[in-house]
Write a structure and sequence with these properties.
Radius of gyration: 20 Å
Largest sheet: 11 strands, mixed
Number of strands: 13
Order of helices and strands: HEEHEEHHEHHHEHEHHEHEHEHHEHHEE
Length: about 425
């Protein structure tokens, strides 16, 4: 039983505190959170020449691809490997790691109080492209009857719930590149307001496919740089587009009461969540960054913090000219000129590429590890800022930096802004409250 009193177990408004007890990842750094964290802290670029398909006729030559992924070796059955699209497979492997770290035993849980909030920005592109080819070459009768349930984006959440017997709410929040963060935020709210005790939350993507790369390339969003080490350059003056990435991130979130009751190891606390819309443009962020600032401010305020408490900023940081300029301006508007140019800023996309719907979940994991270890990982690919991105981008690993709170941002096509406030776990609650 907990030695904490009721006040310490709840927020000042009486709602539940939400903590992280397990994490799992599949990324271009490899399978597992350890591989991810090692790559980020060692400033290792995991972007490589495209090998998922023949890219000879494509202007885009590099991507962030999961290396040597063997689903069966990672615990997926041969039948599941045949039937599940890669985005579902990535989600399962990441979730298995998170559930194991959390020590979550579903036989001891009220299954109706354990839910899933897991999304994909695009869904099963491999399955869609294969089905289209079959239709064109062999006719409608030869299209797989499992095409739709294999490719639709909610199947990561659905199959995770089936795998573990989680019978609470099962949702797939889709907000393009903000999907992972919105899925986590949705899970936080479900726990905070008492609708669930435990949520498996995150995002997954397998979008390094011919159609996806062609679409993003023709939109002008992707870097045409052929050198993998120089293609993704968040906040750098020579940034020229993002690099497509793939993988998944999964987190086990619990109410503090539930986690303490079952003796779980607590990794960090999700102290706030902000969500806003730009109502500006289909693909471009509002250059004023007004919606981004509001999302960041909401996340801080929910945790009882002010901008002065901000320890570091894990930015969306896509390496596109528009995004990095907008986020830099937003940080300065949030914190003021002096503080805004002092706060350490990092982006994992220099190392991993842009994992789209999975990005927010993987970046939340990086932020949890950052605040738990009092450090900030460097931004791979960053060398020199310009006048539009003149913020304090970490170019090396920053150690011995205790933090009250960090922010993790994600922005999605359509003007979706999401921000998580993540803090080291302290029994007495957020210091800002």
């Amino acid at each position: 039983m907990s030695s904490l009193n009721a006040t310490e177990l709840r927020r000042p408004d009486g709602t539940h505190r939400v903590v992280v007890t397990g994490m799992g990842a599949v990324t271009p750094a490899g399978v597992g959170v350890t591989a991810l964290w090692d790559a980020l802290t060692q400033k290792k670029c995991c972007i490589s020449p495209i090998h998922r398909f023949d890219a000879t006729d494509f202007e885009i030559k590099v991507a962030g691809q999961v290396p040597d992924f063997d689903p069966v070796a990672c615990g997926i059955s041969k039948k599941e490997a045949r039937r599940f699209d890669s985005f579902v497979q990535y989600a399962i492997v990441a979730a298995d790691e998170a559930v194991a770290q959390a020590g979550l035993d579903m036989e001891k849980e009220d299954a109706a109080r354990v839910g899933v909030s897991f999304g994909s920005g695009i869904g099963g592109m491999d399955t869609l492209e294969s089905g289209c080819a079959t239709l064109a070459e062999k006719g409608p009768k030869r299209v797989s009857p499992l095409l739709i349930p294999t490719m639709i984006g909610n199947m990561a959440a659905g199959n995770l719930a089936i795998r573990y017997g989680m019978k609470g709410e099962c949702v797939n929040v889709v907000t393009a590149c903000a999907t992972g963060t919105h899925c986590i935020g949705s899970a936080v709210r479900s726990i905070r307001h008492g609708y669930a005790d435990v949520m498996l939350a995150g995002g997954t993507e397998a979008s390094v496919t011919p159609l996806s790369i062609a679409g993003f390339a023709n939109l002008g969003a992707l870097s045409k740089t052929e050198d993998p080490q120089a293609a993704s350059r968040p906040f750098d003056k020579d940034r020229n587009g993002f690099v497509a990435g793939e993988g998944a991130g999964a987190l086990i979130l619990e109410s503090l009461e539930h986690a303490v009751e079952r003796g779980a190891t607590i990794l960090a606390e999700i102290t706030g969540f902000g969500s806003t819309g730009d109502a500006y443009h289909m693909t471009s962020p509002d250059p004023e960054g007004e919606g981004v600032v509001r999302a960041m401010a909401q996340a801080l305020e929910e945790g009882g913090f002010t901008p002065d408490d901000l320890g570091h900023f894990n930015a969306h940081g896509t390496s596109t000219p528009a995004n990095d300029k907008t986020e830099s301006a937003a940080l300065i508007k949030l914190c003021g000129e002096e503080k805004g140019r002092q706060v350490p800023v990092t982006s994992v996309k220099g190392a991993l590429g842009h994992m789209l719907g999975a990005a927010g979940a993987v970046e939340a994991i990086a932020t949890v590890l950052s605040v738990a270890n009092s450090c900030v990982p460097p931004t791979c690919g960053y060398v020199e800022s310009d006048n539009e991105t003149n913020v304090n981008v970490a170019s090396r690993l920053i150690m011995n930096l205790p933090q009250k709170v960090a922010l993790s941002n994600n922005l999605g096509f359509g003007g979706h802004n999401a921000c998580l406030a993540i803090s080291p776990y302290e029994a007495e609650g957020a210091k800002g409250e």
